[in-house]
Specification:
CATH superfamily: Peptidyl-tRNA hydrolase
Number of helices: 6
Distance between the termini: 20 Å
CATH class: Alpha Beta
Structural class: alpha/beta
Number of strands: 9
CATH architecture: 3-Layer(aba) Sandwich
């Protein structure tokens, strides 16, 4: 495929943010899949992440696949205050808001599915509510990672299972799928850096990581 030279019309990420909660008890939970996405990107791109008190986050600066300057961020302010750290980085580096790509979990998408968008509402996600409030706009790209809905909507006592589902960990079978999902996340982000978010949407929003009897396959 011939690479398209960046133009002013392409939306190219500069700051890639993963949403999650900082405590160890939240590690590897569904709600922290945004953190896992940034960790995977940092590992593959060999970008070192470290705590930055000024940004209230784990932060790293490095080079993307095209050797362009890229910033990675994991807010440590808890999910419902994620926007504070993002606003601090945007202001410090004077980044256009359209260059901020947010990676986070989505209940409404099945496991194995990604969804890139150029803008949109929070959709009930507390982390995104904070981001939109602090950036003052919905006009920034985001990459949602499907975590699926709980099989039973309520517990035996009638309480909603959404919170326990979101803050719970993936099953062993789901974990195997999510390894491939995170690889797909990296592919989608790298493609976005080369040819823009919109073209990445057309290519990756239709893909699905599926479980097969022999292995896990990508359709």
């Amino acid at each position: 495929m011939k690479e398209v030279a960046p133009t002013a019309n392409l939306v190219i990420p500069k700051l890639i943010v993963g949403l999650g909660n900082p405590e160890l008890k939240y590690n590897q939970t569904r709600h922290n899949i945004g953190f896992a996405g940034v960790d995977t990107i940092a590992n593959i791109w060999q970008v070192s992440l470290s705590e930055n008190r000024k940004f209230k986050a784990e932060f790293g600066a490095g080079r993307g696949p095209k050797a362009d300057q890229i910033y990675l961020l994991k807010p440590l302010t808890y999910m419902n205050r994620s926007g504070e750290a993002i606003r601090a980085v945007v202001d410090w580096y004077k980044l256009p808001l359209t260059s901020v790509l947010i990676i986070y979990d989505d209940l409404d998408l099945p496991i194995g599915r990604l969804r890139l968008r150029l803008s949109g509402s929070a959709g009930g996600h507390n982390g995104m509510k904070s981001v939109i409030a602090h950036l003052g706009t919905q006009e920034f790209p985001r990459l949602r990672i499907g975590i699926g809905k709980p099989k039973n909507i309520t517990t035996e006592s009638g309480e909603p299972k959404t919170i326990s589902h979101v803050l719970g960990k993936f099953s062993p079978t789901e974990n195997k799928l999510m390894i491939q999902v995170l690889e797909l996340v990296v592919d989608a982000v790298e493609f976005s850096l080369k040819q823009g978010i919109e073209k990445a949407m057309s290519l990756y929003n239709s893909r699905m990581v599926r479980e097969t009897p022999e292995s896990k396959a990508l359709s």
